[in-house]
Design brief:
The structure holds two protein chains of two kinds. Chain A is 32% helix and 26% strand. Chain A has nine helices and twelve strands. Chain B has eleven helices and 14 strands. In chain B, strands 6-7-8-3-9-10-14-11 form an eight-stranded mixed beta sheet, with helices on both faces. In chain B, strands 2-1-4-5 form a four-stranded antiparallel beta sheet. In chain B, strands 12-13 form a two-stranded antiparallel sheet. The chains are: A alpha/beta, B alpha/beta.
Chain lengths: 292, 381
């Protein structure tokens, strides 16, 4: 059974244009459906504005979707009451992109990681402290640094703190929203290795949101490509990289700078007239669909 | 002769014709045409913090030849942006240039009075910043801003400026330039803003363009367009490009030569093909190895540890604590520069009808026990 099942998810934002003009509708997420199996790292790629972050947040109900269904472990997340949703959030967490703005600068990092345990009233004070130490170990931080403030850590270490906070409640599912794009190249690989390591040790399932296709190819078995609020192609990562079917996917793949000066440069320029925006996804090969 | 042994990579010292190779280690006054467009020599720039001088760019030397692209690669905090600001003399206090020469077209920019520097800045050397939204003034149209550059440098009059601005926007492939010229920055997409900024930087036919992470804020498809644009403009106008980036993919696509910076120093410099085929410094090797690309799902080869903070550089080679190949001399003194034997066909490059020798140099004890004299005076930092 799929751990997460998203069907026909829609999020429209309306934007006021003036006193008398009707508000304009931004279709940030437009009829998006996908499933994530247990223990899988599922990639969601697209450019800024394609709706990938909004999708990730709708899944956790950090943003209320306009319509659609999100089923997590068979239960309909969108029908949850406030208290039921709070309980569900123990099981589904998020790691944010920016390790600088996502940690409260006035809290000690130990308290930041402990906070979810306090909110969910888990354990005694002593048990919580022990758990925080355990989490620090788990993400490769020195537990003797619990009393420091976020600014005393580097970007990579801060991302580990964010990850420890997300793991505090033992979730089974994590939305990782561009978790390494703000990090230095030499540190990105460390954090990616940690994410993969935790995946196998804790049987975590990830929705991995990214724009770095090289990275997604390396760590995600399946991937969905979003363009203007819709999934235009989805399937096994290798199949999509080997034979991209949608014009947008082709343009995106050809735009990745290859770290090899001898590699031939063949740019595919996206011609918006070459496809219909609302074409339905259809089967290209087994486990590979595209909106063409 | 420079004070750090044979380390002097100003290729003006290299004859443009490869025959007389005996002059490679002597500083012959080369003919003007053979001098590099820009040569940075022993640049040290840093910040005065609490009465202490903390260097962020340490004894950096490199050169940019006419119509070539030099990529400066490094992580945040490695000093690459500060190097760019030093070149155009825009280091603001508490930052200051401690020492070094910045020879541009035969003149040391540090000797020029600010009035003369203003004539060079934006005209002969122009800068493209990373974030086009903050580099453009939000209350003026992009047309106004391009015209201002033209008029300040006397390249157009009030009458002709508008037409010239439209031509420039057209040259950087902005669609409908006669309409766009009247747009404010917020009305343009990120890619168009970056094009407007490029148009502005090209307004006065510069001979050197310094582009500081020009595509980092952009999506990958837009990045591809901007890189293509920069490359074709460079070819058309014959300008030199000093491209600052952290993305080795961008380096591979754009560079003729690459200088790798770590903790304020250039640790390796090489022609682009050689840097990727035979990376020599353990840091460069680590950077290249950490790029995802192996078998899916396998562990990435991460460089352990983190970049040391500015004021707390370890003694000796700054990379020592993170280096998988460190050995006994590394923490003692900073390694000097070793010029590696030329690697096959990359030894020279054809440019402007002459063959220019290419140098692959590295600062690491794996290649030589040469020690670099410490530029830090005891007690100062």
């Amino acid at each position: 059974m799929a751990l997460l099942e998203v069907t026909n998810l829609v999020k429209h934002f309306s934007r006021k244009r003036g006193l008398l003009a009707p508000p304009s509708i931004v279709r940030a997420v437009d009829d998006v459906s996908f499933t994530i199996e247990e223990g899988e790292m599922f990639g969601l790629v697209g450019e800024s504005g394609s709706g990938k972050t909004t999708t990730g947040r709708c899944v956790l109900r950090l943003i209320e979707p306009s319509s659609g269904h999100v089923r997590f472990k068979g239960e309909d997340v969108l029908s949850f009451s406030r208290s039921r949703l709070r309980l569900a959030r123990r099981d589904m967490q998020i790691v944010f992109q920016d390790p600088f703005s996502s940690l409260n600068p006035r809290m000690r990092v130990g308290s930041i990681v402990e906070e979810p345990l306090i909110i969910h009233r888990i354990g005694s004070k002593r048990e919580r402290k022990a758990r925080v130490g355990e989490l620090f170990d788990l993400v490769g931080l020195d537990p003797t640094q619990l009393n420091r403030y976020p600014h005393q850590f580097s970007g990579g270490q801060r991302q580990r703190i964010g990850l420890a906070r997300a793991l505090a409640l033992n979730p089974s599912f994590i939305v990782a929203d561009e978790p390494v794009s703000a990090l230095d190249v030499s540190v990105q690989a460390q954090v990616i290795n940690l994410l993969m390591d935790l995946q196998s040790r804790l049987r975590l399932t990830y929705l991995f949101i990214a724009h770095d296709l090289r990275l997604v190819r390396h760590i995600c078995r399946r991937v969905a490509v979003m363009y203007l609020g819709r999934i235009v192609e989805m399937g096994e990562t290798e199949a999509i990289f080997a034979s991209p079917a949608h014009p947008y996917t082709r343009a995106l793949l050809s735009a990745i700078p290859v770290p090899d000066p001898a590699a031939p440069k063949q740019r595919v320029v996206l011609d918006p007239a070459s496809f219909q925006r609302d074409a339905p996804l259809r089967q290209i090969a087994s486990g590979h669909v595209a909106a063409v | 002769m420079s004070n750090s042994g044979s380390w002097r990579l100003a290729p003006g010292s290299w004859p443009a014709s490869a025959e007389s190779d005996d002059s490679s280690h002597t500083q012959q006054p080369a003919a003007r045409s053979q001098q590099p467009l820009l040569s940075v020599e022993h640049l040290t720039t840093g910040f005065d913090i609490n009465g202490r001088f903390v260097p962020a760019v340490i004894d950096v030397s490199f050169h940019v030849d006419a119509s070539e692209t030099l990529c400066l690669v490094g992580e945040s905090g490695s000093g690459k942006s500060l190097t760019a600001l030093s070149i155009i003399q825009l280091v603001q206090p508490p930052g200051r240039i401690e020492r070094g020469r910045l020879v541009f077209k035969g003149r040391d920019l540090r000797d020029l009075p600010e009035r003369d520097m203003q004539k060079i800045r934006g005209a002969e050397i122009s800068l493209i910043f990373q974030e086009p939204m903050t580099a453009l003034n939000p209350v003026f149209t992009i047309g106004n801003q391009i015209e201002e550059t033209l008029r300040v440098h006397g390249r157009a009059t009030r009458r002709t400026a508008r037409q010239k601005a439209i031509e420039l926007l057209d040259a950087v492939s902005v669609p409908e330039p006669q309409l766009r010229v009247r747009d404010y920055p917020h009305q343009l997409s990120g890619g168009l803003r970056q094009r407007a900024l490029i148009a502005m930087s090209l307004a006065c036919d510069p001979s050197l363009v310094i582009a500081d992470e020009p595509t980092t804020a952009l999506d990958v498809t837009i990045q591809a367009e901007i890189l293509d644009l920069l490359r074709s403009l460079q070819k058309q106008m014959g300008l030199s490009l000093l491209l600052i980036t952290h993305d080795l993919g961008v380096v591979a696509e754009m560079a003729d030569r690459v200088a790798v910076m770590y903790a304020g120093r250039i640790v390796e410099e090489a022609p682009v093909t050689e840097l990727f085929s035979a990376p020599s410094h353990p840091y460069t090797q680590g950077l290249l190895a950490s790029i995802p690309g192996g078998a899916p799902g396998t562990k990435l080869q991460a460089i352990q540890g983190t970049v040391p903070p500015l004021g707390e550089l370890p003694p000796g080679c700054s990379f020592t604590p993170r280096c998988p190949r460190r050995f006994e001399p590394c923490p003692k003194a900073h390694p000097g520069t070793t010029i590696l034997p030329p690697g096959g066909s990359h030894a020279t490059v054809e440019r402007n009808g002459s063959r220019i020798p290419q140098v692959h140099s590295v600062k690491c004890y794996l290649y030589s026990d040469r020690v670099e004299p410490d530029v830090r005076e005891p007690g100062t930092f």
